[in-house]
């Protein structure tokens, strides 16, 4: 129901706009579950060295993922990784209702023009993704996710490998 959604946003904005007595009183409604700190152990030198050539190996390793995310945050460019992770989580959803809800959330957070964490994808990919979202399926974001993966591989990974975040790991 379109009206309810707009009403919900107005209520949330109303909550945010109320003047709190102190900064500690501000509560921002946030739908995602807080991230559980991953049980991680420092990777072996061999493991860490493999990341230079394989973004996938880096993303599959909890320690590597956390380190890569910290690096991207340090340069204010974590939206691509956050989008990639959101897509991975999306593909694990079984319920069509939850899938539609998560698809809408991913679209609003990362894909739509002027989204808070808008990822840099071409118009063609954006259009295909929007068409896919008419009837959300597990593959709705595949094309956009592949584009972002390629971008991270070509752009973010080489910068990460040159960073102190990575250099500390291979000392």
From TrEMBL:
CDD domains in the record: RGS_RGS5
Intracellular or extracellular location(s): Cytoplasm; Membrane
Domain RGS, chain residue ranges per copy: 54-170
Gene Ontology molecular function: GTPase activity
Primary location: cytoplasm
GO CC list: cytoplasm; membrane
Highest taxon of source: Eukaryota
GO biological process: negative regulation of signal transduction
Alphabetical keyword list: Cytoplasm, Membrane, Signal transduction inhibitor
Summary of the function given for this chain in its UniProt record: Inhibits signal transduction by increasing the GTPase activity of G protein alpha subunits thereby driving them into their inactive GDP-bound form. Binds to G(i)-alpha and G(o)-alpha, but not to G(s)-alpha.
Protein name as catalogued: Regulator of G-protein signaling 5
Species: Macaca mulatta
